[in-house]
Write a sequence for this structure.
């Protein structure tokens, strides 16, 4: 009888290992890695992905033009930045402490790396660890000036000028999730193409010149 796990490759083993993050092996490994990441600069380049299976699933290739940067982002919500907690307004807007940021920390990490490495294009990102203070992410970036990227039909779409700073406009996977674009059908009737443009279309009267 053929055993199911007999055909599992190395990447499949890594994938299954990362699914059990509370196992003894992963808890020990992540504790060591988060300690190491805390000693490094906030944004630094990785020699190789910490999760090669995850990076490959998100588009990373081990060839010229691809690079991975690791970043840490401070955890927690977004406290309203006002003096002495006083809001001169209606009671419904008087919250200060329990407010949440509209975008995920992974999206924030992509934006910070994209601003730091402005000549590169953000392809995707993934979680690599967290502790009580920080969350750590690795961001996959692509150099749109490299011939190996411009001549590859599977990735040269990112060389277009329309893809410049795509992380700042909600075009990455994390950005699309924050915009509510993961849902389809009747669940996102007012989300496409964006909430703002959808609202504008429904609330503006268009009077054609010849009607």
């Amino acid at each position: 009888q053929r055993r199911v796990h007999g055909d599992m490759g190395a990447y499949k083993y890594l994938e299954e290992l990362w699914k059990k993050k509370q196992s003894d092996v992963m808890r020990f490994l992540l504790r060591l890695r988060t300690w190491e990441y805390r000693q490094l600069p906030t944004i630094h380049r990785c020699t190789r992905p910490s999760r090669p299976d995850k990076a490959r699933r998100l588009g990373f290739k081990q060839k010229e033009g691809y690079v991975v940067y690791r970043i840490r982002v401070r955890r927690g919500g977004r406290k309203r930045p006002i003096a002495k907690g006083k809001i001169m307004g209606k009671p419904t807007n008087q919250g200060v402490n329990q407010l949440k940021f509209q975008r995920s920390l992974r999206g924030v990490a992509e934006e910070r790396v994209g601003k730091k490495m402005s000549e590169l294009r953000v392809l995707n990102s993934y979680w690599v660890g967290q502790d009580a203070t920080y969350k750590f992410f690795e961001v996959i970036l692509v150099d749109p000036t490299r011939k190996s990227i411009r001549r590859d039909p599977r990735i040269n779409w990112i060389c277009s000028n329309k893809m410049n700073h795509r992380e700042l406009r909600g075009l990455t996977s994390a950005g699309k999730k924050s915009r509510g674009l993961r849902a389809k059908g009747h669940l996102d009737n007012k989300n496409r193409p964006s909430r703002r443009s959808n609202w504008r279309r429904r609330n503006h009267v268009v009077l054609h010149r010849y009607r």
Summary: The CA atoms of residues 192 and 198 lie 6 Å apart. The first strand starts at residue 43 and ends at 45. The two ends are 74 Å apart (CA to CA).
